[in-house]
Design brief:
With 211 residues, the protein is mainly beta. The protein contains two helices and 14 strands; from the N terminus they run βββββββαβββββαββ. It has one domain (21-210): Beta Barrel (Acetoacetate decarboxylase-like), CATH 2.40.400. The protein has helices at 94-104, 183-186, and strands spanning 22-34, 48-49, 51-61, 67-73, 76-77, 83-84, 88-91, 108-110, 112-115, 120-125, 128-152, 158-179, 190-204, 208-210. Strands 1, 3, 4, 7, 8, 9, 10, 11, 12, 13 and 14 form an eleven-stranded mixed β-sheet that branches. The protein has a three-stranded antiparallel β-sheet with strand order 2-5-6, with no helix packed on it.
């Protein structure tokens, strides 16, 4: 499965999860920055948009229960709507690991989380750590939209899926610290533009394979 070392895991006996769609109630912090020169090395190849997008998500309700998640795309795959390519993603739910790997080709691994996703949060596992501190500013506003991702499938195909979101958000400045075999090369430390989703409903649909 396509991943960076932080998302490598040889375990295969994950508890089974239900198939998509996965509806969920969420709170989240998202941030972005221009990709570092090293980011292309960890991207999917092909035409790209040189932007890194990352997020910390608290799933309050989901088909596998509540859990927290960190994911990041070093570059975006170019297209009419740029898509995330996600080699790094970790959660604190074993069924969610199964769901990510089985349904969407996402290289999910287990991690421990502490703190508040809309404030100070730490995600840590063996060999890596990410800390975020979100400082929301300004009024709450409605948000309607979505995200898509396109994962290399190992044989030249792409696994594409999208998540639709409706809720409320605030602009935020997000301070990031990252440690790991690759993360400190492409998940840029410092303070970045971002948003916090203070409340939202999200649904991630089934994947389709493009060859």
């Amino acid at each position: 499965m396509w991943s960076v070392p932080e998302s490598d895991d040889g375990r295969t006996d994950w508890p089974a999860s239900p198939p998509p769609p996965w509806p969920a109630s969420v709170r989240a912090t998202l941030w972005w920055h221009r990709s570092t020169p090293a980011a292309r090395e960890y991207g999917p190849g092909g035409p790209i948009v040189p932007m890194t997008l990352a997020m910390m998500v608290n799933y309050l309700e989901s088909p596998v229960g509540p859990y927290r998640e960190i994911l990041a795309s070093p570059v975006l795959r170019r297209g009419p709507i740029p898509a995330m390519a996600v080699p790094f993603i970790a959660v604190d739910s074993e069924p969610s690991v199964h769901g990510g790997r089985e349904h969407w080709k996402l290289p999910k691994v287990l991690a421990e989380f502490s703190g508040d996703v809309l404030g100070d949060l730490t995600a840590v596992s063996e060999g890596w750590k990410v800390r975020t501190s979100a400082s929301p500013r300004g009024p709450q506003l409605p948000i309607v939209g979505g995200l898509s991702f396109a994962q290399p499938d190992g044989d030249g195909a792409l696994c594409r899926a999208s998540a639709r979101l409706r809720g409320r958000f605030r602009y935020a400045r997000v301070t990031v610290e990252a440690e790991g075999p690759t993360l400190d090369r492409w998940l840029r430390p410092g303070t970045h533009h971002g948003i916090v989703i203070t409340s939202g409903s999200m649904a991630t649909g089934p994947a389709r394979i493009e060859r």
